[in-house]
Amino acid sequence: MPNRTIIVGGVAGGASCAARLRRLDEQAEIVMYERGPYVSFANCGLPYHVGGVIADEAKLLIATPSFLNDRFRIQVKVRHEVLAIDRTAQTVTVRDLESGRESTDRYDHLVLSPGANAIIPAIPGIDLLGVFTIRTVPDARAVRDWIDSRQATRALVVGGGFIGLEMTENLRHRGLAVTLVEKADQVMPPLDPEMAAPVRARLEESGVVVMLGDAPTSIRSEAGALRVGTERGADVVTDLVILAIGVRPEIALPKQAGLELGPRGGIKVDAQMRTSDPHILAVGDAVEVVDLATGAPALISLAGPANRQGRLAADIITGRTDVFRGVQGTAVCGVFGLSVAMTGASEKSLTRAGAPAAGVVYLHPSQHAGYYPGAKPIHLKLLYRKDGGRVLGAQAVGEEGVERRIDVIATAMRLGATVEDLADLELCYAPQYGAAKDPVNIAGMIAANERNGDAPVLPWSAADDIGFTVLDVREPDEWTAGHHERAIHIPLHQVRDRLTEIPRDRPLAVYCAGGQRSYYAVRMLRQNGFDARNLSGGWQSARHRAGAIARGMQARNEAAG
Ligand code: FAD
Q: In the chain, is it the N or the C terminus that has fewer CB atoms within a 10 Å radius of its CB?
C-alpha cells in the first residue's frame, strides 16, 4: 500500500514538504489540507500588495491547487480545517468549511505546518471594523478595500517589527499619514537599540509619526473614524489600525493531540522535525528550533527555515537521515530606502540567554569604493566570541549592499567561521560593487586586531568613564560640529608631533568619525608606549548610541510621570 502523508497547512512549510515528497516518492499519496482559500501564497508580499507595489493580487498566488495536482499529484483541499488528531487510529478529523461536513482521513505520516497566529491585544474596541492583521491574501484585500471605500487618509500601525515597518512604508506609499506605535523603546526590536536609531530617524524623515514606549489601550468608533487611546495618554484619530505586534505558534492541534510542547510554547521537535509522536512531524512557525548562536530554544517566524524544514520532513518520511542544523534568524527588511539586516545573536539576545558578553565592533564603511560615485555608508555591528573568535552575529543598516554583507557573514557563521576567517574571505570587488577590503573583511580585521592586541577597541560607554582620557583625532571642522565633552583634540596628522601633550596617567579612548583614523592613531600611540584603544565606530556610533539612550531616558521619564 502506498505511503499516505497528510499535511496540515498549505503555505511555506506545508507546500515545500508536499512538493519535495513527490520528488522523492512517485508512489506516495499526498493530501494537503488548508483552512484558508489559497495554498502556497506569498505572505511576504502582502504588505507590498497593500501598498500597490504588487498591483495584481494573482501575482501572490505562487501555486494553485490545480497546478499542484497537475504537476505533483498532490490532493489539495482548501477551505478544509483539520480539527483533531487520533494518534492511535492515525486519523485526522477534517471539516469542510464550505459545507460544514466532517470526515476522517487516515495517515501513515502527518506533517503539521499550521504556522502562527497574530497576537491580538485584549483591549476594548479591538474587534471594531477597521482594525486589521496581515497574515493572508483576504487580510490584504480587506485592508485595500477599506482604504479605497473609505478614502482613508490616516493609519495607525501597532508594532515596529518587520511586518509593522513594511506596512508603514506601504501605507505611506499609498499616501496615508501613518503613526507607528511600538511598546519597546526602539523600532525593530530584534536589533540592538543603537542600530535601530538610524531606522527610527529614517521613519521620521519619511513623515511617519513614531511613538515609542507606548501601546494602545482602547479603540473607539467615532464619527466615521477610530479613536485610539494609548498607555501614555495619547489620543490618535485614524481611519484604520494595523496590528503587527508579533505572532504565537498555532498549537491548537498539537495540544489536542497531546504532543509535547517546548519551553517557548512551540511544538517540540527533534533534529529531524519529529514530534513526540514518531508518525507526526512538524515544521515552520509552529515549531521550536535551536538558536545556533546561543544554543537556546527559539521561535523563529521566517520563510527560509520553514521551507528548509518542510523539505527535510519529506526527506525523513522517505527514509533519509539528514538533520536540521538550527536557525540563526537571518533576516532583512526594507524601510524607506534603508535595508535593515541581521543574522545570529544580538547583544540583547545574548544577555537574555545568559551568555558571556561578546566581543563587539562597529564600523561604517561604504558599500563600494569611496571614489566611485554613489558611495553610501553601511552601519555594521559584528559580535564574536571573545574566547576563540567565533562569529556570533551581525546587524547592518544602510541604503545599499547591506543584505549582501549580512548574507556573507551568515554563511560564514554557518560554517563556524572566526573573525580571522572573515578578515581572510575573498569577496567580489570592482569599484562599483565593493572594495579591495570589503566591509566584511574590515569587520573581521578590526575584531582580529582587538583579539591580538594590535588595536584594542572600547565601547562608547567607556568615554563616560573618567578612568579614560578621551582623544579626538578628527579635523577641526569635524570637532567644531560636535565632540565628546571630555575630549582633548589633536588631529591625526599632528599626533606624532604632539605626543608630549597627551596624558600618560590613564588609558586613552581614541575616536575619529568612523574608526579608521583613530585606528591609525591607536597604532601610533601604542608604539609610543601609550595604552591607547579605539572607541569602536567613532563619532558616528556615538551618535547612534546617544539617539538610543535619549529615547530610553525619555521613555523612562515619561513612564515615571
Ligand atoms: P504559514 O505559511 O503561515 O502557513 C500555515 C497555514 O496553515 C495557514 O495558511 C493556515 O491557514 C493553515 N492552517 C493552520 N491550522 C490549520 C488547520 N488546523 N487546518 C488546516 N489548515 C491550517 N518571512 C521571511 O523570511 N521574509 C519576509 O519578508 C517575510 N514577510 C512576511 C510578511 C507577512 C505579512 C507575513 C504574515 C509573514 C512574513 N514572513 C516573512 C514570515 C513567513 O511568511 C513565515 O515564517 C512562513 O510563512 C511560515 O511558514 P509556515 O508553513 O510555518 O506557516
A: C
